[in-house]
């Protein structure tokens, strides 16, 4: 297990390095000039050269990349002398737009995205798995058909549509909830929850349908296994048969997609955050794209990759605990 | 005295989009304590459906007739009452022990879980019981292996685990559905001997479902041959092997390869395929495949094809459903 983990962690580092290199190269090849953007509209050629040198953009790409990597592991300085800006470990570059280290921006925005992702995940797991398992146990009967029609329905609603309908229906017309504003959980848990409720619902609906269908299928498959017949033949109560014998194997495949989905969402839900005005990573990314704030885009991309790769690793490790046949 | 298990006029049918499938169409049999009934037939003959119906495990099927355990009617009982019979008074073991055991739970847990339910026993007592049972079915180092998972056992050992699981609650009847089909021949014999030993020690009634006449010859006292959901022939095992009356039974016996066959002797298969259970022909369901029907006079031939033969006695203890039985009626009575 330890050996396996070690190997996997090296793999994770390798993947992140590759993603870093690819993204970095793409940005290097883009035609726009970050130095000009940072310098402003009234920029003399001399000043531009200075800015370029300060940002390290005058060096060849491999040197820039090496400097970027060094920054991540040890921090780096931009420029020299009294104007030098220090970017501490882990330095993911310096945002042109905010004049702040990207890492600080990420750390600042991360709690919003995590709050959004985890709340939505709880909601979609409850809704999706509840509907899926209910359907599976009533396969072919009216409850199953209604739930599956509903899930096709919600799956086909894009998140920007549901978000806008929720805002229109619940905030504007009914006035039941305020237009979402982010409150820190540590400041006021109630405000935190009630403000995030609508984005949670919007995001959860997007995923719940997929989880309903997936869990229905895998639960039906599990309940058809010969060991379920064995459990029935042993005279176990039907609840034990369903929950202990069916659910445990039926829900195992869900773990994989859940790991991927949650990992992806932790690094920001671009559309949901933008519509609800939540200052999360997704919003940061969106703004970064609009303003060609390359270090921000690069930083968010790396963070997203990091979450997905780590979520994958966690899922694989969890499997070993869920399924005793899996050994590393 | 009431028999351990008495099944009368059991009919099991399924509604399918293509029509009603009469998987079992009027079966009668009795199992006495300490005796083994061999239930023989090819795939689709209704033998497994019969056993599932006895357990009330037929999902979505219509079951009529009577299934009495020590005189207590089981057909029509609710899930709750059946729960006190399943696993407790009637145990069932299945063909493929790897897929019939849950891959995520230790064998100890799987042996003990229904013991805890049926006897309201503690976790500790359940575990103790599991170790005892593993020892009884001949698994070495039971105290260690009780915490292992099914995939860590070999095929034969897994079937022993299934048997340990089945017998953990001291049932009166064991239904074994092709328990040796998935096993090596040498291991098959060990498993059959194990079942026979436990049967003797406990006076267990056994229903041995199989398509393998070798298994029947080895363990059964009484044999019921099923064809197309109906009884074809029933007799004590010696009688059945010595003087089969039904041409189908004869065909099954003939289809066994023999050691004294020459190398190039063809296998004697029964031609044709099993009958439709949705729209059964009016006459004998075996008639289209039956050599005796083909060889019979025109009048007899027509009778086989138009009139369903009744399942009736040929001699005491020997019954068959055939217009043209191989043993003349009363000849050996």
Automatic annotation (TrEMBL), chain A:
Where does the ABC transmembrane type-1 domain lie? 110-319
What's this protein's name? ABC transporter permease
**Protein keywords:** Cell membrane, Membrane, Transmembrane, Transmembrane helix, Transport
UniProt similarity note: Belongs to the binding-protein-dependent transport system permease family.
* CDD domains hit by this protein: TM_PBP2
**Membrane topology qualifier:** Multi-pass membrane protein
Q: What single Pfam family name could you report for this chain, choosing any that match?
A: BPD_transp_1
Quick check: keyword Transport in the entry? yes
Q: Which residue ranges run through the membrane?
A: 9-30, 110-134, 146-170, 190-209, 254-276, 296-322
Q: Where in the cell is it found?
A: Cell membrane
On whether Transmembrane is a keyword of this UniProt record, the answer is yes
Q: Which InterPro entries match?
A: BPD_transp_1_N, MetI-like, MetI-like_sf
TrEMBL record, chain B:
Q: Which domain of life is it from?
A: Bacteria
**Domain ABC transporter per the UniProt entry, residue ranges:** 5-253
Keywords from the UniProt entry: ATP-binding, Cell membrane, Membrane, Nucleotide-binding, Transport
Where located?
Answer: Cell membrane
One Gene Ontology term of the molecular function aspect: ATP binding
> Where is it mostly found?
membrane
Q: Topology with regard to the membrane?
A: Peripheral membrane protein
Any one Pfam family here would be ABC_tran
Question: InterPro entries under this entry?
Answer: AAA+_ATPase, ABC_Ni/Peptide_Import, ABC_transporter-like_ATP-bd, ABC_transporter-like_CS, Oligopep_ABC_C, P-loop_NTPase
Cross-referenced NCBIfam families, in alphabetical order?
oligo_HPY
Record-stated family: Belongs to the ABC transporter superfamily.
Give the protein name, as stated in the record: ABC transporter ATP-binding protein
Q: Which species is this record about?
A: Kitasatospora putterlickiae
